[in-house]
Amino acid sequence: MCGRFAFYQEIEPLLDDLGAVDLTEPGFRARWNIPPTVPIHVVTESIDRDSGEVLRALRMARWGLLPPFAKDLSFSARTFNARRETLAEKPSFRGSLARYRAVVPMNGYYEWRRDAKGRRTKEPFFITPADGSLLYMAALISWWKGPGGHEGPAASADGAWLLSASIITRESRGELADIHDRTPLMLTREAVDRWLDPGMDRAADAQAFALEDANLIDDALLEVRPVGPEVGSVRHDGPDLIAPAGTAQGRIPLPPA
């Protein structure tokens, strides 16, 4: 699964690489301990109804997908991940599969080792490309109206809609499977363009794409690094969280919410 990650990439190189416009707020830049239900960066692609032009944009979305039938925001606490094997079957996700896809850029994600009985231990790892490059995670998005208006960086300009997202996962293999049985769907740079393409507008085609391992980066390109236990608390943030266990100093506690 993916329940905590870091995104501290400079925005301009990301926009240049993807050919995207920045529709985010500058207050949400470098973060090293991002949990579900908070605003995250997503890259979307859509066709303007009036001009017919394709717009690729970096936006903010609540992490935890809110399908149209969700009654309140609490629903997103259980939809921050979506299994690729059942995207077309699950009511929460199948409505987004054909038309509302995205990628979540990140520098790496955290995972806690599971014991023989599948229980989470206190041993966290940071999983990141060994060459320092950026990860693009396949995701689904949904514009949710819900009751009342919305505020914050994930809301539409008029506050009528809230953008939400879920990161897609797959079964783990090799070294990653030694830590957890699920891992995010990490797309190659070429696969990003195809995943975002609004021309892929059939759910069956998108489902088949998500199941094709040729669209994913090689796990051998990843570094699996043990890190300190401080990442287990969202009250901690800062670059020291991704340092190898036993070497970080001066971790940065966040003030009370």
UniProtKB/TrEMBL annotation:
Gene3D superfamilies per record: SOS response associated peptidase-like
Chain segments annotated as coiled-coil in the UniProt record: none
Keyword vocabulary terms for this entry: Covalent protein-DNA linkage, DNA damage, DNA-binding, Hydrolase, Lyase, Protease
Region (Disordered): 233-257
GO annotation, biological process: protein-DNA covalent cross-linking repair; proteolysis
Gene Ontology molecular function terms on file: lyase activity; peptidase activity; single-stranded DNA binding
Top EC group: hydrolase
The EC number(s) this enzyme carries: 3.4.-.-
Family (UniProt): Belongs to the SOS response-associated peptidase family.
Name of this protein: Abasic site processing protein
Record organism: Brachybacterium phenoliresistens
